[in-house]
Amino acid sequence: MSIIEKNSPYVLGIDLGTSNSAVSIYRKGQPLVIKLGKEETIPSVVSFRTEEDIQVGEAAKRRILIDPENTVSFIKREMGTEWKKEFYGNTYRPEDISAEILSKIKEYVINQEEVDLKGTPAYAVICVPANFDDNKKRATKEAAELSGLTVTYLLEEPVAAAIAYGTETSRSQTIMVYDLGGGTFDVSIMKVDSTSEDEPATFSILAKEGDPALGGYDIDQAIMKLVADDFKEKSKLDLFDLEADQGVSVRELLEAQQKLQEACEQAKKELSEMDEAAIEIPNIIKDENGVIHNVDFDISRADFEQVIEPLIDQTINTMKKALEQAKLDKSDISRVILAGGSSRVPLVRSKIKEMMGREPFSNINPDTVVAQGAAIYGASLGVPTDKLPETTEQDQEDKPDTDIKMNNIVTHHLGIEIRGGRFDTIVEKGVELNEEQPAVVEERLYSTPEDGMTEMRFTVFQSVESVSYVNEESSVCIGEFFLTGIPAAPKGTHRIAVEFEVNQQNEVIVTASLKGDKGVSSRLAIKRD
Amino acid sequence: MTKEEVMQAFEQTQNSFKQKEQEIASWKNQVNLLEQKMDGIVNAFQAMYDGLDLPADLDEETENQLQNRKDGIRLSVKSASRLERKWKDIQWPEDFAENFVTPEELVNEIKANKEQHSDKPKNSEQAETSTEQKQDEINTEPAAEVEKEETSEQKNQAGLAETERKSDIELVQEKAEINEKVLDGLTDFTNSLQKQFYSFFEKAVVPVIDGLYSGKKFSAEWISQLQEQNNEENERVIEWLDVYDRFIQEMTEFLETFNFHLYEPEEGALFDEETMEPIGVVENHEMEDEQVAEIVRFGLLSKQRDKEEPLLIRPAQVIVVKNREEQQEDTGEEQPNESGQ
């Protein structure tokens, strides 16, 4: 007789990030970050050495340069797309690559010795960006299933960060989340309603804004440029010009760039705590005359802030846009919380303070705050009721004191394609879904565009931005269906009603029906995870 | 939890606490030693630099070249002098023992708990407390062990107070939980201290050696040229250039005091992504794909207590060979690949 191990009652909170990933579980009233090797995060990189030997994390990241054909990074950007690649005879989709990352995370969780998991981890709350469309969410959920994890909820990253902070108090508040990651910037505003300690706290998203091309990488580049310009003036060598004949090899320049990058990253960290830092790199490069050059650059926090100020100002403008979108004034915001490693830069805090009139909250590690929030939410949801018999019972101390309810807004403009490739919006982005209005229903009438038409095709699209045509960049097709059985008649005779319903389960139900004939109707339900 | 499990949990916190006390004491010694040795290395570097005169009667070009090397060393000495500033002072958790409950304190609490309730009137309902509840009672002997065989009279007396005060088992469980919280706090402290320690060596100490190592590599090329022209002046220059090894040796000994070791893979070794980080790719048809063509920067290892395998603190940075198939027939001249990280 074989013994089957029960499932763990701990729901994993996973931040499946573009550059790095993290995992946490809620235990003894705290979200505990699980170490992934030596660090609390691992790079979201997968490298195929052979059909069986697949590496994930730091080791995979170290293969990007020497084996780029068999190494994949930034796969999150491809989720929900048609991206496919073959490695050693097997074809991989973005969800397959993400599944490898999730499997590795799960392996770390199983092998850690700090917590008795009381079974195999089987359930997870996985975080996704606020602007992830349905295809991307569906792909994320499939990735989890492929790794042997059932997703109990796909939680938006800023909401997760807010939960990590929000559950520390039991009062109602409006929170702004400022998330400055390595390559992207997002700002979200949400309402936390907590009427009493006995009632669940409710989270409602009021606005989401972002800048997909701004991140900590730009801050690093700014400081490197400052030092490299000074070095060029003194040495007449441009460390970033690989084309010009400077009498040094490309390899030597790349080595020097690497040294400069590491020293600048370290200086950036030091400047978060001190007023000045020294960037000292003895013997960085030898020129064609045999002279060895050093980098010896003292940088004050003021100099550093001067070069990065335009970047931080861009993020402040995005915050203002989010306030406008939520129709709120800065005084309506109870607190601003920081997420993303790059939010550690002191100028971020001071600029936010200048704009909002108060200090942002930053006492939780911004690299892991999203995973921690997901762990709290996962514990609040618990294991699905029907799976309890196969799950070890959870200790009372591992359950959060307060429940969390999730309200939402419609995250995309939703509509159908009409003649001329136009995007006809039926449900506007931003409509709030809550207990009073758990679903939004909108209907629009169309007529048959051709004589004798007995069947019509409906293609459903969504878009983050307001667009006029379906072929615009932000527009994504999320489904297609046909209405058949229309009696033949001259064009314009029939009226076709198209109804969109979006509910709190993120499901879009589109129904097309012939006015006056209930028998001619067709329906498409699109599960939005 | 059964009473045995509760007692075991409490006992376990006592053992863990002793281990934590020893761990913190050991860290204090390490940090004291670090502060002393940092002072020593700064002074040693400065003294070595102060005594670093250029050989007399060199030709102008050689003298300029050596002065150029000396400037690089001056910068390494300057970096070393900043080490003390980069080490953040430790806020030791001095009062951690105050909140921790010892077996003696537990016994006193149990006694006090009993005494506090023994004066209260006993009613008949209370006397009917179940035997199961009575078994939760705990002997108040210093070992705080569960009394296994109570007389029926004792059981009755114990049960009488049961509904009005915490049972002994509840009290022990409560104290065990308090202790676990103290231990969690101490674990957080030691984890954070270890992180700071590793980070200090990786980000502040070892970069000083990196600079010297680069200087040594540049000098190696010069030394081979000088050795070809065998004369007395060149010998004095070669001897002077030995200075890099002396500085590196000093710093390596400093690292070894704290169980850190440099990791320098062999050129020609196969690339190992677990311990190496490639920063460039070159073609070299005399070598196989994924062989290490050059070590750019060594790695750092930490020998861990009770573990055979050292912990990799930072990987060695290497240049790796990757030959393009269509150029296999080429002369084998090394061509840098322009793709950077």
How would you describe this structure to a colleague?
The complex is a heterodimer of chains A (529) and B (341). In chain A, a hairpin with a 7-residue loop joins strand 13 (185-193) and strand 14 (201-211). The mean pLDDT of chain A is 88. The relative contact order of chain A is 0.12. Chain A has 3 domains: 12-168 and 364-406, Nucleotidyltransferase, domain 5 (2-Layer Sandwich), CATH 3.30.420; 216-305, ATPase, substrate binding domain, subdomain 4 (Actin, Chain A, domain 4), CATH 3.90.640.10; 409-526, Substrate Binding Domain Of DNAk, Chain A, domain 1 (Sandwich), CATH 2.60.34. Chain A is α+β, with helices and mostly antiparallel strands and 529 residues long. Chain A is built from 9 helices and 28 strands. The two termini of chain A are 39 Å apart. In chain A, the strands form 8 sheets. In chain A, strands 1, 2, 3, 4, 10 and 11 form a 6-stranded mixed sheet that branches. Chain A has a 5-stranded mixed sheet with strand order 17-12-13-14-18. Chain B has a domain at 260-341. Chain B has 10 helices and 7 strands. Chain B is elongated, with a radius of gyration of 33 Å. The longest helix of chain B is centred in the middle third of the chain and has 61 residues, at 168-228. The two termini of chain B are 55 Å apart. The model of chain B is unreliable at 122-163 and 327-341 (pLDDT under 50). The interface between A and B is large, with 36 and 50 residues.
